[in-house]
Design a protein that fits this description.
The complex is a heterodimer of chains A (249) and B (436). Chain A has 249 residues and is of the alpha/beta class. Chain A is built from 7 helices and 12 strands. A 6-stranded mixed beta sheet of chain A has the order 6-9-10-3-11-12, with helices on both faces. Chain A has a 4-stranded antiparallel beta sheet with strand order 2-1-4-5, with helices on one face. A two-stranded antiparallel ribbon of chain A has the order 7-8. In chain A, strand 1 and strand 2 form a beta hairpin. Chain A is globular, with a radius of gyration of 18 Å. The model of chain A has no long low-confidence stretch (mean pLDDT 93). With 436 residues, chain B is α/β, with parallel strands linked by helices. Chain B has 2 domains: 273 residues, no CATH class; 57 residues, no CATH class. Chain B has 10 helices and 20 strands. In chain B, a hairpin with a 2-residue loop joins strand 1 and strand 2. The longest helix of chain B is centred in the C-terminal third of the chain and has 17 residues. The radius of gyration of chain B is 21 Å and the shape is globular. Classes of the chains: A alpha/beta (249), B alpha/beta (436). The interface between A and B is medium-sized, with 36 and 26 residues. The complex binds adenosine-5'-diphosphate and magnesium ion. Adenosine-5'-diphosphate binds next to helix 1 of chain A.
């Protein structure tokens, strides 16, 4: 059996005196797709952020292992360099920095951490072309300020474009489906599926079953009030779609 | 002896030696200006416009006021202060004395030379009589003081229908002891002409200088003037920069001020719109740390109808740095159809830096469009986390965000080599390499 990419062990985290995550356990192995579903405010984004290293939240108890090693002491950028990617529920607008320049900076920062030279401009452009085509992105977005004035859907597509460029080992997609119409949803899902292989893993966070028709999960977990209250196969997502969350509480 | 007394003694000494009597028409202006200074004295915090300005600490120092002398400067030591790799005219002063060695002036087609030599030559008399000290009359005692002592500075005259192919660099170097310097520039751009100018005051050792500079810029019909100021002096240098601009019909004048360093910098920038359909642009960007101070006081007098003014000032203040922004727009009752925009955004880093921001609109016409926006914020933590999540180290993410914040001001620079220079300076100040 291959060793897990991610192990979340009895994770308690929160802000100041407010405990938001109350003992999460989750193990993700290479090649797997996991989905976390749960009502608003249950702690889904908090869990993503804590895995990605957001210092706004304090880890009170428990541990997070990435490829067998604790990452709690690592900065967000160090976690990113190890191969953790998080698609933001609300991607940030950065005026004055174009999408192209931003992704170049991100890729070269990762290479630097690995002791590599900057990626030659030619290769960078080729890769940008390839990945933006995969996501059927309008090229004009690449030369515009990052996410500035982008619609919700364009922002999400840009997130997955960046994911495609960075080729993470673990991709956490926080409500990537919200803001996407059905065509865009298919394109984004297709992009994610193309990047998926036996060595990486995806954690899909969503409210709705819809996205899971396209990115089919191996495991579905229900998060409620900071705890995983139920786990199952993909059929659990359908059940939730029909019955809502109330029957689980 | 305090500075005022010292200046008084100095003034009469220079008078007796005849050094201030270089021209009959200017001499009376000088004497009158000195009287005005003598009566008013240096501004104090009691005056509204000087409320936040710690001028006292600066004027209480001991300065050399009359014995300006040329000091030996090697080109290699000062090369870095010039914009290089591009052909430019240069007017360079060392301790207030013209350096022919470092300069590259001209009289062919245009005049790029010394104010003192222009004052002495009969062929410039008309221009001087017509323009000298005609708009530098805000009744500030510091302006009077400069007028009283006017000896040296840049004289630029662009006759009509001329596009000056090379930018002009005006640079004032100082070294060897604490000096009180009072440069004076006169820029006259005739109809339909275009010029790009860069001005800089630079201390090249650890002296504590005090510069009180006055610049008058006249833009005739359809003239285009881009005037850039790089303020990146040492943390011992103090500068009071007073710039006055007068514009005629359809002219476009932009003054871009970049404040990256200096112990104390006060910029008074005044635009007088004396024509129609003209455009005034005032852009500023400050990036300061330690205990540095920058104070931007701007005034736009909309005196005629159908004109525009666009003002964008941004600042980043870290450590114990202090910024002041005071932007006045005065729309005269006959200035109908005025478009006046003003924006001032500041970022404070840490909890010891300060910004005082005060937009002031005084509108006496009824059919006008005026807007102003003023924000003071901190660095966006979510944006920082976002960038770090993508692998960009915190320090670079920080710098990139600050760079992005200032970017729209940098974009206003129309002189590519200068833009490149400013970008590099910013990166250096932020302690990172910006790859673009
Ligand atoms: N930065 C924060 N500051 C204060 N409270 C927060 C913060 N982030 C999350 N919370 C609180 O934690 C709970 C879970 O939020 P979140 O993780 O965003 O849930 P979800 O993504 O499942 O909708 C909510 O009650 C929310 O108000
Ligand atoms: Mg959420």
């Amino acid at each position: 059996m291959s060793k897990p990419i991610l192990e979340v062990k009895d994770l308690h985290a929160g802000i100041e005196n407010n405990e938001i995550l109350k003992g999460i356990n989750l193990t993700i192995k290479p090649g797997e797709v996991h989905a976390i579903m749960g009502p608003n405010g249950s702690g889904k984004s908090t869990l993503s952020s804590v895995i990605a290293g957001n210092e706004t939240y304090d880890v009170i108890k428990g541990d997070i292992l990435f490829e067998g090693e604790s990452i709690l002491d690592l900065s967000p950028e160090e976690r990113a360099h190890k191969g953790i990617f998080m698609s933001f529920q609300y991607p940030v607008e950065i005026p004055g920095v174009t999408t192209t320049n931003f992704i170049k900076a991100a890729i070269n920062a990762k290479r630097k951490s690995q002791g590599l030279e900057d990626l030659p401009a030619k290769d960078m452009l080729k890769m940008i072309k390839e990945k933006s085509e995969l996501l059927e992105m309008d090229r004009k977005f690449l030369s515009r300020s990052l996410n500035q004035g982008f619609s919700g859907g364009e922002k999400k597509r840009n997130e997955i474009f960046q994911m495609a460029m960075l080729e993470p080992k673990l991709a956490i997609l926080d409500e990537t489906d919200s803001g996407l119409d059905i065509d865009a949803l298919k394109i984004v899902a297709n992009g994610v599926n193309k990047l998926k292989n036996k060595d990486n893993a995806v954690l899909v966070i969503t409210h709705y079953q819809r996205l899971l028709d396209y990115i089919v999960p191996d495991f579905v977990h229900v998060l409620h009030n900071g705890k995983i209250i139920k786990s199952g196969g993909k059929e659990l997502a359908h059940e939730l779609e029909e019955k809502g969350y109330d029957w689980l509480k | 002896m305090n500075l005022k007394d010292k200046l008084t003694t100095g003034f009469f000494e220079l008078e007796n030696k005849g050094e201030l009597h270089i021209d009959d028409s200017i001499h009376p202006i000088r004497t009158k200006a000195f009287e005005a200074f003598e009566n008013k004295g240096f501004p104090t915090k009691k005056e509204e416009e000087w409320k936040y300005t710690p001028l006292k600490a600066i004027i209480n120092k001991d300065y050399e006021i009359t014995n300006s002398y040329e000091a030996a400067v090697e080109l290699n030591d000062v090369k870095k202060y010039f914009i290089q790799d591009v052909d430019t005219y240069k007017i360079v002063f060392i301790n207030g004395v013209y350096s022919s060695f470092l300069s590259e002036t001209t009289h062919s087609g245009i005049d790029v030379c010394l104010l003192s030599s222009a004052i002495k030559k009969p062929k410039y008399k008309l221009i001087l009589d017509h323009y000298f000290n005609k708009i530098a009359k805000n009744n500030e005692s510091l302006t009077h003081l400069n007028t009283a002592f006017t000896q040296q500075g840049a004289f630029i005259h662009i006759p009509k229908n001329t596009v000056v192919s090379k930018p002009i660099q005006i640079i004032y170097f100082s070294l060897n002891g604490n000096q009180f310097l009072q440069p004076r520039n006169l820029v006259v751009v005739d109809e339909n002409s275009h010029v790009q100018i860069l001005e800089r005051h630079q201390t090249i050792d650890d002296s504590s200088n005090f510069t009180n500079s006055v610049t008058e810029i006249f833009a005739a019909k359809r003239a285009i003037v881009d005037y850039n100021k790089i303020q990146n002096d040492t943390e011992k240098a103090s500068l009071i920069d007073q710039t006055f601009v007068q514009q005629k019909d359809n002219s476009i004048v932009s003054v871009n001020t970049f404040s990256f360093g200096g112990k104390f910098t006060r910029n008074n920038l005044e635009f007088y719109q004396e024509g129609e359909r003209l455009e005034s642009n005032l852009n500023g960007f400050s990036l300061l740390g330690n205990k540095q101070y920058v104070d931007n006081h701007t005034v736009v007098y909309h005196n005629q109808p159908n004109c525009e003014s666009h003002e964008l000032y941004k600042g980043i203040y870290a450590d114990k740095a202090t910024g002041v922004f005071n932007g006045k727009v005065i729309v005269h009752q006959k200035a109908q159809l005025t478009n006046a925009f003003q924006q001032n955004n500041s970022i404070l880093i840490g909890d010891k830096s300060t910004i005082y921001a005060k937009p002031q609109l005084e509108i006496f016409a009824d059919d006008v469009k005026c807007s102003h926006g003023c924000t003071i914020g901190q660095l966006d933590e979510t944006a920082l986390f976002y960038m770090q999540q993508r692998g960009i180290p915190k320090k670079e993410a920080h710098a990139l965000l600050l760079y992005a914040f200032g970017n729209d001001v940098i974009e206003k620079i129309k002189f590519p080599k200068l833009k490149e220079r400013i970008t590099k300076l910013m990166a250096k100040k932020l302690g990172v390499e910006l790859g673009f």
